[in-house]
Amino acid sequence: xxxxxxxxxxxxxxxxxxxxxxxxxxxxxxxxxxxxxxxxxxxxxxxxxxxxxxxxxxxxxxxxxxxxxxxxxxxxxxxxxxxxxxxxxxxxxxxxxxxxxxxxxxxxxxxxxxxxxxxxxxxxxxxxxxxxxxxxxxxxxxxxxxxxxxxxxxxxxxxxxxxxxxxxxxxxxxxxxxxxxxxxxxxxxxxxxxxxxxxxxxxxxxxxxxxxxxxxxxxxxxxxxxxxxxxxxxxxxxxxxxxxxxxxxxxxxxxxxxxxxxxxxxxxxxxxxxxxxxxxxxxxxxxxxxxxxxxxxxxxxxxxxxxxxxxxxxxxxxxxxxxxxxxxxxxxxxxxxxxxxxxxxxxxxxxxxxxxxxxxxxxxxxxxxxxxxxxxxxxxxxxxxxxxxxxxxxxxxxxxxxxxxxxxxxxxxxxxxxxxxxxxxxxxxxxxxxxxxx
Length: 438
Description:
Blueprint: H1 9-12, H2 17-30, H3 35-41, H4 49-64, H5 72-83, E1 87-91, E2 97-100, H6 102-108, H7 112-115, H8 129-140, E3 148-153, E4 159-170, E5 176-184, H9 186-236, H10 243-274, E6 282-285, H11 287-296, H12 298-302, E7 307-312, E8 315-316, E9 324-327, H13 329-346, E10 352-362, E11 365-374, H14 402-412, E12 416-422, E13 426-434
Parallel strand pairs: 7-10
Antiparallel strand pairs: 1-2, 1-5, 3-4, 4-5, 6-9, 7-8, 10-11, 11-13, 12-13
């Protein structure tokens, strides 16, 4: 490849033997000259010495990084550097450009002719010029430079984002140079900013949701207090009440108490979800909780002619056989109520729901298993998120949160939850809790 293109037209018009020899000497010090180039230089007309000297220096800059066209490896390296989409530049000790590849020029909107011989501060925002000039000088003197992100200026004045790395090399004159490699990260930075904005917006919505929920909890307590007070008043006159009416009043009072407790534990559920809450457990007999969860849904089940069968080891249980577990009572009752109501809603009219309990071990840890079976089937497309938090539901008026709360409560007790669902066998929800160690 001929390097005659490096010799400006002004030089070719010069014809001064002494100055011509100065040019040749400078060029020889920085790179090889082939016979054709040497012959061209001998034809230079006369001109001023300072102009020749300047041109020779510019040629010397270029010669520092010339690739030998006779060396295939150097030619391949040149082609790679010229074609790479990563911007590469070389600056001298004072920060002037000595080499820029096409990607570097394209990124900043300049040509190589615009940049060569100019300060790299051309593409630096005014507020960063002093800092980057000092960093450049320190790097040339041997100080390490950490890979980092910087703001830079396009030719049109637009601010861009780059990530820059640097390597120190020695030129053929033995003087240090800085090789800077830049990569455009403007799109990534824009995406990161958009993501930050979305996170802030979501946090704002969550704070608003928390405030609304707190207001709802507060407003619900007033009518709930009225219901509980009315039930207490009726219970004071239980001798005058029909047995069936008395049973209904007692059930209403227990349900109101549970709802009141649930209002207090709503915040606990949020903390459980975030993994920032250690539940307070106590050893209790949970068999009455099972019976109560059935009783509070009994009217709903009877309206659809659905029978609920509670068994222990295959034998019908009436709540008298103790099942000792260490649980958070309100959360445990909430879980049982969700399990029973979900089973009723998933069943067809006239079906039978079975709740089987029995001692079981998980990884050699003793505990109790509870198995809620109904004839309904969980849609196959929904099974992978059945125990996850989702706005979808298998029921027309469902929220999709009931099964999620079940899993949340079970895992908070270091228990295990799973399910099976198939058209031939229906659906069974399995929950297991560790037993109290006496």
